[in-house]
Amino acid sequence: MLEDLLTGALQSIVFGIVGVVLMAAGFGLVDALTPGKLRDLIWVRRNGNAALLLAANQLGIAGIVFTAIFTSYDDFGRGLASTALFGLVGLVIMALAFFVLDLLTPGKLGEIICSDEPHPAARVSAATHFGAALIVCACIA
User: Fold this and answer.
1) What is the pTM of this model?
2) Which of 12, 66, 87, 129 might form a disulfide with 22, Cβ 3.0–4.6 angstroms?
């Protein structure tokens, strides 16, 4: 029983690390999609548009990781690999959704997101990011 508990705890730590790495990759993705440095936009300039997009991205990645773990293979290695793979797929799909939305709308979405003035496009972009993540979640389940 103690061995099962320790094994489960170790697997939780490893899955947690993979999840945090994927969320860090999500941060990098949003940083790459928006002009300027995301750290400055959110933590120095207190830009609500950029914060909303990043929050949607982080919640989306967390949802993908959650779904991948929850529906994971019984084999730990396969479950871990599928979690990492689906997390990366989610990042690609979210980036694609951002580019498609940018093509469909006037102006440059990245510049709008970086604007200090609140803009409705930030909410649409955040919903697009989160919606793309939900699509990946459905594919996993």
Assistant:
1) 0.90
2) 87
